[in-house]
Specification:
Strand content: 35-45%
Largest sheet: 6 strands, antiparallel
Radius of gyration: 20 Å
Oligomer: single chain
CATH class: Mainly Beta
Structural class: mainly beta
CATH superfamily: TolB, C-terminal domain
Amino acid sequence: MLKGIAPAGMLAVAMAVIVVGAPVAPAAAQQAAQRVNCPDCPPSGELSPEPQVFHTQEQTFRVVPMKGLNRPWSLAFLPNGDMLITEHDGQLRVVRDGVLDPEPLAGIPEVFTPRRKGLMDIALHPRFEDNQFVYFTYHRASPRHRLAATTVLARGKYEEGRGALVEVRDLFVADADYMGAAQTSRIIFAPDGKLFMVVGQPARYEVGSSDFAQDPSNHAGKMLRLNDDGSVPDDNPFVDTPGHRPEIYALGIRNANGLAWHPETGELWETENGPQGGDEVNIIRAGANYGWPVVSYGRAYSGELTGTHSGPQQTARQAEGIEDPVFFWSPSISPAGMIFYTGEQFPNWKGDLIVGALRGAEIQRLIFNDRGLLVRQQSLLRELRQRIREVKQGPDGLIYLLTDEWDGALLRLEPVDTEPAP
């Protein structure tokens, strides 16, 4: 039985204990671990091409790297076990039997890549075996400014024999022109076949407005809900509300980097980067407002509690009509991709939330008790000093990670049949 989840807000006050797994060999990795014994150390380690073994109280596991990627962003598993991996510079790569194909797939449209923009998330249609549809998000140049871009949802048909996506077309173009460094986007299909797409608003440098996340006439800083052809579902919460874009499902979102469905409650969970501090885990609800840039548990990059460009508008952390996060981090770890682990390979992790971290250069395991309260945080893999962009559970029940590095890698976590650390 998977562990339950507390109501929103309860986890933020739960006490947590951090346990860092220690690697066994090689010695160089142990020496590197000694140099990163601080929460603010930037990731800068060179990843060993050799597998490394880690011991924790509940689980001993091996990390097996596959190098050769360039800033990988997201991955999707094909029915035959192959993987599709997006690279932020606009390449779509294929991994077959654990080997990276040297040739990228053809068919990806021109991607706008200045200032950390690029190709982002990828997902297969729920009926992929019937239609071969692959969905992805990317940044497209905007005519409104030479550095501005907007977020696009596109779809293509995967043809393995040709090594390409064909019949590629844009399904949805967000009205969210943006000049900042990283307007991220995630996509995920719901059990009913609807597609959720988040369009971020990390810092307030948008073209034409500073508060788009609270502006219902704009897509920036919003969770969107679409049909699989990019059209608007009739039951979206703002379909009949004047002045609101009908695609909007929720608003007040800063920079979402992870989406996952809770396997028992069916709720959509989201990880969100705050400014300086105030990273959040949220449960997404129809019509809800998540507060940015009105309130935040973080502060401006200048260190001030509020800030014109990067901080919240007021010092209060809560406000009427604003959803509280389920959990927040301060200082920031820059949470990214996440999963609720449901496999059999790591039985002691079943039901736990596994979150990748960019600034934290780790994965975090959030552990809940049977009453749904967060009882412990476990920090893993910080010794590798790699920015973890993506976390996925494979069809084999193993856990796969992507490192957000120029010399990026796919990491496979597999259990080791030995006694865990005492």
